[in-house]
């Protein structure tokens, strides 16, 4: 922990001078993004309903499983984002963004918690289940991380208020990753992990499909143009990533997306729209690609611009800035974030 913190501090000192160039473009056209549903301004069509299941109302102990070979600088950015969820930073902050998620309640009237603690980390740097993973294999990775049989320090198995976040490195391929999904959430099966506990997986897309999963810091190569409203200039660059890496900054918005959804629909029987629980439309699915007022239909929306053309919409701990997508606000009945102009 000490060593990692030290690396974070070094990164902050260097970060002013080390914005890297954008990741290379994906060779695979992104059909998914072009079809992304957007519900901004069409709230009558959204039938988001509560299906009587639990939400994550108790303080969350979040455990990260770093799968594969991870760059410590990237780990540091992600850790700072997660630590920003329940910290106070200048408005609009990551915590202010989470307030929209907190508006969801369960049948007892309890809101989703505002207390998310980074309770442990596990480095699976030996690729315990290989570099090609099925969706179900993510559960086996969690099992490995909570089993004490390894030399490496294992994580506690916490079915009471644990939430496991599996993050796969650039060289790991996951079923449906870069084709249908950038991340997903679900819950573990007792036959694999021993208990039922919610988890989420997000992959690092910087080399595999930045145009799909690191939008708007990269864009699909079929489009030939920066995303509209991203501020890219004349055939030039997309919006710059606020923490210097399109893959990791894009991943942070996907992590935000999955955390919002796993908290409001942890057992896939609480908050979702549509009639099909096997393909639920959840609170962040409704707002994919919307980061500010006027966003939607391929427009990022009104976000802040910083030095060197970086784009962001929220502040985090230690001076960090992040660009994270909005989520559905059940009171206003529209996509919303703390940087909204109205
Ligand atoms: C809890 O949710 C209700 C209903 O959305 C909302 O009115 C209230 O402000 C929420 N409380 C907190 C602390 O977010």
Automatic annotation (TrEMBL):
Query: What's this protein's name?
Result: Protein EXORDIUM-like 7
The family assignment reads: Belongs to the EXORDIUM family.
Whether Signal counts among this entry's keywords is: yes
Upper taxonomic classification of the species?
Answer: Eukaryota, Viridiplantae, Streptophyta, Embryophyta, Tracheophyta
Q: Where located?
A: Secreted, Extracellular space, Apoplast
Reading the lineage from the top rank, the first entry is Eukaryota
Organism of origin is Morus notabilis
Which GO terms of the cellular component aspect does the record hold?
Answer: apoplast
Signal peptide residues on this chain, from the entry's feature table: 1-23
Task: Report keywords, A-Z.
Answer: Apoplast, Secreted, Signal
Under InterPro entries, the record lists: EXORDIUM-like
Q: What is its main location?
A: secreted
């Amino acid at each position: 922990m000490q060593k990692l913190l030290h690396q974070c501090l070094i990164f902050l000192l260097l970060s002013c001078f080390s914005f890297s160039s954008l990741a290379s473009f994906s060779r695979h056209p992104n059909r998914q993004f072009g079809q992304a549903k957007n519900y901004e301004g069409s709230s009558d069509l959204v039938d988001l309903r509560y299906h009587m299941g639990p939400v994550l109302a108790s303080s969350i102990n979040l455990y990260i499983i770093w799968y594969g070979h991870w760059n410590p600088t990237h780990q540091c950015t992600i850790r700072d984002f997660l630590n920003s969820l329940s910290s106070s930073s200048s408005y609009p902050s990551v915590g202010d963004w989470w307030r929209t998620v907190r508006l969801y309640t369960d049948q007892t009237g309890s809101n989703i918690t505002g207390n998310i603690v980074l309770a442990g980390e596990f480095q699976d740097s030996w690729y315990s289940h290989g570099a090609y993973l099925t969706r179900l294999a993510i559960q086996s990775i969690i099992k490995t991380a909570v089993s004490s049989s390894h030399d490496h320090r294992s994580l506690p198995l916490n079915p009471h208020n644990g939430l496991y976040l599996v993050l796969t490195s650039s060289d790991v391929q996951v079923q449906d990753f870069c084709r249908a999904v950038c991340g997903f959430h679900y819950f573990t099966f007792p036959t694999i992990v021993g208990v039922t506990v919610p988890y989420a997986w997000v992959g690092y897309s910087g080399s595999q499909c930045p145009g799909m999963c690191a939008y708007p810091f990269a864009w699909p190569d079929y489009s030939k143009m920066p995303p509209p409203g991203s501020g890219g200039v004349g055939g030039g660059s997309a919006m710059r990533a606020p923490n210097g890496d399109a893959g990791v900054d894009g991943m942070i918005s996907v992590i935000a997306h999955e955390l919002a959804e796993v908290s409001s629909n942890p057992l896939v029987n609480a908050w979702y729209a549509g009639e099909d629980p096997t393909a639920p439309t959840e609170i962040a699915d409704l707002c994919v690609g919307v980061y500010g007022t006027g966003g939607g239909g391929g427009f990022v929306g009104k976000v802040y611009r910083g030095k060197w053309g970086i784009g962001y919409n929220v502040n985090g701990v230690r001076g960090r800035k992040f660009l994270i997508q909005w989520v559905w606000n059940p009171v206003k009945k529209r996509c919303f974030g703390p940087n909204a102009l109205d």
